[in-house]
Amino acid sequence: MTTARVETRGSQQAQRGPAWLGETLGYLRRNPSMIVGGLLLLTLVLFTGLGRLIVDTNAASPLSAPPAQPPGPDVPLGSDPQGRDILSVMILGTWLTVRTGLVAGALGVAVGSAIGLYAGYVGGRRDKAITWVVDVLLTVPAILLLVMIAAVVQTELTSLGMALIIAALAWRRPARQVRSQMLVIRNAGYIEMARLSGLGPLRIIFGEIVPNLLPFLISSFVTAVSAAILAGVGLEAMGLGPQNEPTLGMTIFWIMELSAFLRGMWWWIVPPLAILVVLFVGLYLVNAGLDELANPRLRRRA
Amino acid sequence: MLVLIGRRIVMVVAVVWAAATLNFFIPRIAPKNPIAEKLTQLAGTSGVDPTKIQEMSQAFGARFGLDQPLLTQYLRYIGDMARFDFGQSITKYPARVSDLIGEALPWTLGLMITTTLLAFLIGTLLGAAAGWYRNSKLLSVVSPIIMVFSAIPFYLLGLVLIYIFASRLGWFPVSGGYGLTSVPEWSWDFAVEVLQHATLPALSILIASVGTWAIGMRGMMVTVQGEDYMTFAEAKGLKPSRLFYRYGMRNALLPQVTALALYFGQIVTGAVLVEIVFAYPGLGSLLLDSIKLFDFPTIYGIVFILTLTVALSMLLVDLLYPLLDPRARVGR
Questions:
Q1: Fold of the domain spanning A77-295
Q2: pTM for the full model?
Q3: Of the candidates A140, A149, A234, which has its C-beta nearest B18's C-beta?
Q4: Contact between A152 and B314 using a beta-carbon 8 Å cutoff
Q5: Which ipTM was obtained for this model?
């Protein structure tokens, strides 16, 4: 029984290699949400990437433009009451916000997977203890812990520092997810095979398990990035972000703080909202697409 | 069953204890004592009577027992937390933090409970219909839109709604929980005012969370439809409505309820930010004010209470679950 399963697994593995690229392309064609999401994210990357080359982003600091101007020849997207050029703020802010998400998401998934892989691999009492601690920590809403940390270190916080603070909590969900995936994989025939042929635990984890978890880890990474951006922008909107960097969340904080709604400053309100909505929807659609890649059962159902 | 409940209660205690402990140690990791720092800052900037500052720092010193060893401080602190004694607010001294929280909590709970239940109900029904009538033109247009909305954070949607319906169209007030000039009272006019102010915050939570429930329910409904008992019930000639509610929804609902327990943390986070965006007089706005003025006792009190709310709601769902699922009643 076990040997039969090992054989079929093995042959599937062998076939998958060369057909991989064609499969991906065919898959993309069947998966419009991935394409739309990818295009949305690409637009933002081009906006901030090209923008930084063309526009002088020094104008994103206060007092570099006449205050509270509607869009005009000097200030293409207008300026805020403190004299920041909105176009520069958006270009720089998009980059800073995305970078926060990428750094925190990458750290979170790396640390979380390490913990999850360890717990899932050793099993038993240690696994139970780790899972329990992660469960307890998962129940405490992240933003509340982040508020406490950020409130203490608030002064002199940079956007990279904030990414680190967010990463301090971003590992919990990946740890939980990777661990439960490990439980499924651990008993698979090919792992048994690897163990019987005398491979050490590290070679089994990185040589056999991680490659099989890869699609799952990528999807987990996109989720973590999205969650990190959500947490970051949320903290910044409460005024807990970097005080001297024009991130999108800080822009939202100033919009509320200086009552842009009552003053009718639409040129200040619309751009950050639009960019954030595009960013979140783009990440969501890409993730929905990746979910199907990581979980073939969803593909057949659709 | 009893063992399960016992384990859950231990979990709740552990969660609350973890939150309180982190509350205690995080400020102590910081190089300086934030409370002393802010008190001095307050004395320098706001021209508060120096004797009052003295009195305040003494009160805080005594409360935290700053001269005693760390372990004694910690045990005392945990004891205080267990009795919901969060001390006195710095900015609104000598108001007690627990009183400030007590004032704000009904607003937060009212907004959160109403919107969560409504979103769960609407989303679940919508998802069930979308999974059941997969050929419906209307649903195939509506459901992707709702799902995309579920990707947008509550507060961003709130800002968009404020911009369109309050700032541009002027249909609803921009912010607050009631009019600037009115005083909270039990009257018809005031109730209408409160509803008017609550509409946009509630809508932003509703629109953004309906999709989450719809996605889960649609998936489960499709799975349930493939079960043998559905084929059998259909062959028996049961009415379609009975098939839909009693056979389809009843069974597809179970994972939704589990998801509800896991979703509470997100709802609290979302609601806090929505309140901030709308300057709604709940815990979120209190939190924002406390952050701006470095009112640490209030910040910690709010964090503690919100964590407790999440943990208790999860426990509640866990206790209700056996009512829905007979298998959970038997237990192992």
A1: MetI-like fold (1.10.3720)
A2: 0.81
A3: A140
A4: no
A5: 0.77
